[in-house]
Write a structure and sequence with these properties.
heterodimer, A: mainly alpha, two-stranded antiparallel ribbon, 17 helices, 6% strand, B: two-stranded antiparallel ribbon, 69% helix, 5% strand, globular, electron transport (chain B), electron transfer activity (chain B), Cyt-d_oxidase_su2 (chain B), metal ion binding (chain B), metal-binding (chain B)
């Protein structure tokens, strides 16, 4: 394999995925905020709520199309850039992607057209149901995508088949109800709700500071404060750290996040700050809170949190066992009917992926020396300083969001939100923060997955397509230029829409000019 | 469950792949055709807005057929997904870049009144319609010719072709046929959906040319398949229940091989017949001013042309032109029986639901777009 191609493929995936996730969380959250606003309109019948709904609907629309446009790339990128991954796990990984299209994306994409064009053609309640279907569709989309992603982190319900040289489903229920997927779903959509709430809160605060569109702004702010408080609590409290104790690789991710180089006696302390040093395998200047990590990660006082050194020893054993499975697979390629080899394979198949880690250093893992196996075991550790800092920055923003929305909620309840100017300024300044946290969250999740594409199953450096560097540079530059241009356009349009403000409300529009069914 | 054995599941999923591709051609196909026609059938801003709004409320749902097609091929035919999209890498990038312009083009064009801004988006939409239509056809042509890839014993695919190598006289012919077919479908949609006036007249004129071109190009393609050098056949035994391992199949080039099925299964002739008859009916409908007939005809034609490709190649899905043991077929490139079964179950539940609400959405937006609508309705693009 050409490691340059691997790095470029990873760069492209990271760029397009992180870019995609600038738009998706806003769609996830704003769709439900629209449902709340429109429900109030339908229940009270007050035109100002229609105005509120339609304004945020406009912002939703500008953002939505870029989520869709960049999602196109994601759906096909596994095939274009990660073709060995696609072959190796398509039997499992393809299903949630396909179901996402069928169950969720059809729903949101079909109803989003009616949401924008149907104001005059649907009853009030009918339109509200359409808006709700859009919100349901976007959130179901997230569920299926995170089931796929959760399986990459914890590949349950599947095993390797030497006849087809790939992973195949053994228990689809386990894939569906993968606890890591569930935790990720709750955490990710909550983060999306926070992002949308912060935008609504910040823009409303901006208007209040300018003294414009007070009626729309204060109502929007109230909705955002309540929804944002619930969401930020959910995002932080139901963060997916609880899933980190489940498997060897999840434990490794947790150990890297906490820079836990060695297993500490239970209950482990939480390192608040420090300087992790990969080369020396130690953390300098660390500030520790006793007991806290053990409590968070194991929900107990007597379970240990595994450290990296111990997990690496475990990886070393699994590599040695995996080499036996690898050898059996090579022999089964020549003679698929060999029962003895099949039995050897069955005994060691769950470690096959670990043997593949050796392919970074030798063409045939069977020739690896014990010393090489021992040094390769350290490949199973992700980039510790990156994990350590990304996680802390994300968590800090999470707590800041709770404080922000708690304050907003308090001020709204006391009816002080129109006058408290310092808070309004703070709310505007806070707008970018949750986006940063969301991107950092993906960095923690996916960089923490390294060196694996599928944890314990397929290393990233084996997963890519057999492409040339020229082709990759072409598409990276192409996507960068295209996405960059579109980002500038989108931001300008959103800013212009915010400056323009909500459309003046005509008296609650009559049930629309009837449209002739067929013009003669 | 004996009816749904592995062989039957593979056959069903071969059929469902056809359903998805045809669903895409029938629904998003007219969106692509309309976008490709936009700068020509409509000249003033008001005219262009009528054209854009004729698909504005529904195109987004239609596009999901494409995305679902990608996802379903991934789930049911992972080898095909892995080999084709990585092999046609730059072509795929061109398609994606063009398709990315569509959602933004539809939405952002109307956000500013500036004519230069709007003209730029009109051309972006034109690219977003024409380029995918062309490249999809070229890609199908390459599939028919066989693609230069090999699969090693780890099942890793290596592609030996180049981007420019995708364009041969035959594949370009297929590309043009795809454009003609979708432009015909798009003009039939416009004739049905836009009020009588200059746009309607121009759509009919372009539709006439596209219908004639479709018939001519489809006949030329058929002749090339019959008398040219393309086609493949499987040598030796095939196990329809065997594991999905392409290395255990041997295939060779066999000129004329793409017509063998029509002798074995004469009912398959329905597909090419629909391709021709549909286009002819569309032509009659357009000339007589019977728009429903024109649209039914163009739909039948697109259905027939896509189905012809599938019927001609069965059981091949993606033959290799350079390696006898790499060709992907219905019997060696699918997911496991369990995955095919689960996905079939999910499809049987959700596809009818999707069709039901899609039908409802089209009904809500029923009726022609008028120049009055684009002047007065603030929700229009």
């Amino acid at each position: 394999m050409d490691l340059g191609v691997i790095d470029l493929s990873r760069l492209q995936f990271a760029l397009t995925a992180l870019y995609h996730f600038l738009f998706v969380p806003l769609t996830l959250g704003l769709s439900f905020i629209l449902v709340i606003m429109e429900s109030i309109y339908v229940m009270t019948g007050r035109p100002v709520w229609r105005q509120v709904t339609r304004f945020w609907g406009k912002i939703f629309g500008i953002n939505f199309v870029l989520g869709v446009a960049t999602g196109l790339t994601m759906e096909f990128q596994f095939g274009t850039n990660w073709s060995y991954f696609s072959h190796y796990v398509g039997d499992i990984f393809g299903a949630p992607l396909a179901i996402e299209g069928l169950m969720a994306f059809f729903l949101e994409a079909t109803f989003v057209g009616l949401m924008f064009f149907g104001w005059d053609r649907l009853s009030k309640l009918g339109h509200l149901i359409v808006t709700f279907m859009v919100a349901l569709g976007t959130n179901l989309s997230a569920l299926w995508i995170l089931i796929a992603n959760g399986w990459m982190q914890n590949p349950v319900g599947a095993e390797f088949n030497p006849d087809t040289m790939r992973m195949e489903v053994t228990d689809f229920g386990a894939v569906l109800f993968n606890p890591i997927a569930q935790a990720k779903f709750v955490h990710t959509v909550s983060a999306g709700y926070v992002i949308a709430s912060v935008l609504v809160l910040g823009v409303s605060a901006y208007w209040l500071l300018k003294g414009k569109w007070i009626a729309v702004a204060r109502r929007s702010m109230t909705v955002a404060a309540a929804f944002g408080l619930a969401s930020s609590l959910s995002a932080v409290v139901l963060g997916d750290e609880s899933g980190y104790a489940l498997t060897d690789n999840q434990k490794m991710k947790l150990a890297a996040i906490e820079a836990a180089w060695h297993t500490a006696p239970a209950p482990a302390g939480l390192t608040l700050f420090g300087m992790p040093d990969m080369a020396a395998r130690t953390t300098r200047y660390s500030v520790e809170v006793p007991w806290l990590l053990g409590l968070i990660a194991t929900r107990s006082l007597d379970h240990e949190v595994a450290g990296m050194s111990e997990l690496v020893l475990r990886a070393e054993e699994r590599i040695a066992s995996g080499v036996i499975a690898y050898d059996a697979v090579e022999r089964l390629k020549i003679d698929p009917a060999n029962a003895a080899e099949r039995a050897r394979f069955e005994a060691h198949k769950r470690d096959l992926g670990y043997a593949l880690l050796l392919k970074r250093h030798v063409a045939d893992p069977r020739t690896a020396s014990p010393a090489l196996i021992a040094s390769t075991a350290w490949d199973s550790v992700p980039n510790v300083p990156l994990m350590f800092w990304s996680f802390r920055a994300m968590a800090l923003i999470g707590f800041a969001m709770i404080a922000l929305f708690a304050t907003a909620f308090l001020l709204c309840s006391l009816r002080l939100h129109l006058r408290t100017r310092w808070f309004l300024k703070l709310a505007v300044a806070a707008i970018p923060l949750p986006w940063i946290a969301a991107e950092l969250g993906w960095i923690v999740a996916e960089m923490g997955r390294q060196p694996w594409a599928i944890e314990g199953v397929l290393p990233t450096f084996l997963a890519s397509s057999s492409l040339g560097r020229g082709a990759l540079w072409t598409t990276i530059l192409g996507f960068t230029v295209l996405y960059g241009t579109l980002a500038v356009i989108e931001i300008r349009l959103i800013l212009a829409t915010i400056r323009h403000g909500p459309d003046e409300q005509k008296e609650d529009q009559p049930a629309a000019a009837p449209i002739p069914a067929v013009a003669a | 469950m004996s009816f749904f054995d592995y062989e039957m599941l593979r056959l069903i999923w071969w059929g469902l792949m056809g359903v998805l591709l045809i669903g895409f051609a029938l629904t998003d196909g007219f969106d692509l055709g309309v976008a490709a026609l936009l700068p020509f059938v409509a000249r003033t801003d008001a005219e262009r807005r009528m054209v854009i709004n004729s698909v504005g409320p529904t195109w987004e749902g239609n596009q999901v057929w494409f995305i679902l097609g990608g996802g379903a091929i991934f789930a049911a035919w992972p080898h095909v997904y892995a080999v084709s999209f990585s092999g046609f890498y730059l072509a795929m990038f061109v398609v994606l870049a063009a398709l990315i312009l569509r959602p933004v083009g539809f939405k952002y064009r109307s956000k500013r009144p500036d004519p230069a801004w709007r003209t730029r988006w009109d051309w972006a939409l034109f690219v977003g319609g024409l380029v995918p239509a062309l490249v999809f056809g070229v890609a199908v042509g390459n599939v028919l010719e066989g693609a230069p890839f090999r699969i090693d014993s780890d099942m890793r695919a290596f592609y030996e072709g180049s981007f420019l190598g995708l364009f041969t006289p035959f594949t370009l012919l297929c590309g043009l046929l795809s454009v003609a077919m979708l432009v015909l479908h798009g003009s039939a949609w416009l004739a049905l959906k836009v009020e009588h006036g200059p746009v309607h007249d121009r759509a009919r004129a372009y539709g006439t040319v596209a219908a004639l071109a479709s018939i001519l190009l489809f006949a030329l393609g058929w002749a090339y398949v019959a008398f040219g050098t393309i086609g493949f056949r499987i040598v030796g035994a095939v196990d329809p229940f065997g594991p999905s391992n392409p290395l255990r199949t041997t295939s060779v080039a066999a000129p004329g091989g793409w017509l063998v099925n029509y002798a074995l299964y004469p009912w398959m002739m329905i597909a090419p017949a629909l391709g021709f008859v549909g286009a002819a009916l569309a032509l009659v409908g357009i000339r007589r001013g019977s728009e429903p007939l024109a649209f039914a005809g163009s739909s039948a034609s697109a259905f027939g042309i896509v189905a012809t490709v599938g019927c001609s190649m069965f059981p091949f899905i993606l033959p290799s032109s350079v390696d006898a043991h790499s060709s992907l077929t219905v019997w060696n490139a699918s997911s496991s029986a369990r995955t095919l079964g689960i996905m079939l179950f999910v499809t049987l539940i959700f596809l009818p639901i999707v069709l039901a609400y899609t039908g409802w959405a089209f009904r809500v937006m029923f009726g022609r777009v008028t120049s009055r609508d684009v002047r007065t309705n603030p929700d229009f693009y």
